[in-house]
Design brief:
about 130 residues, mainly beta, 4-stranded antiparallel β-sheet
């Protein structure tokens, strides 16, 4: 069992930056792939970024490529999402999630692939 707790959300102006953190419980954290998703009001939950494998393979949604960076610290059992050049359309509740690892990168873009979810943290970007 893995429990996930996000933090770091808040209100920021367009063009600004935020770093989200997701602290995980459990000794098996390093064996899981980790992802970030987001959900805006009235919209479906969408994939943002994922990180997996011992070498830290990553994948990003096209909408955040070049602006967001996912990383993890297996000593601290924490995964991060560095968000730069934020836009109003990035406003959403951001969720971290854990999944059993797979070699298929497309697997990580599907919410159904993830077994564990945090409670979410609100990110609001003002124009």
């Amino acid at each position: 069992q893995v429990q996930l707790v996000e933090s770091g959300g808040g209100l920021v102006q367009a063009g600004g930056s935020l770093r989200l953190s997701c602290a995980a419980s459990g000794r098996t954290f390093r064996t899981y792939a980790m992802g970030w998703f987001r959900q805006a009001p009235g919209k479906e939950r969408e994939f943002v970024a994922a990180i997996w494998s011992s070498v830290g393979n990553t994948n990003y949604a096209d909408s955040v490529k070049g602006r967001f960076t996912i990383s993890r610290d297996n000593v601290k059992n924490t995964v991060y999402l560095q968000m730069n050049a934020l836009k109003p359309e990035d406003t959403a509740v951001y969720y971290c999630a854990g999944a059993v690892q797979s070699s298929d990168s497309f697997y990580y873009a599907r919410a159904a692939s993830y077994n564990y979810w945090g409670q979410g943290t609100q990110v609001t970007v003002s124009s």
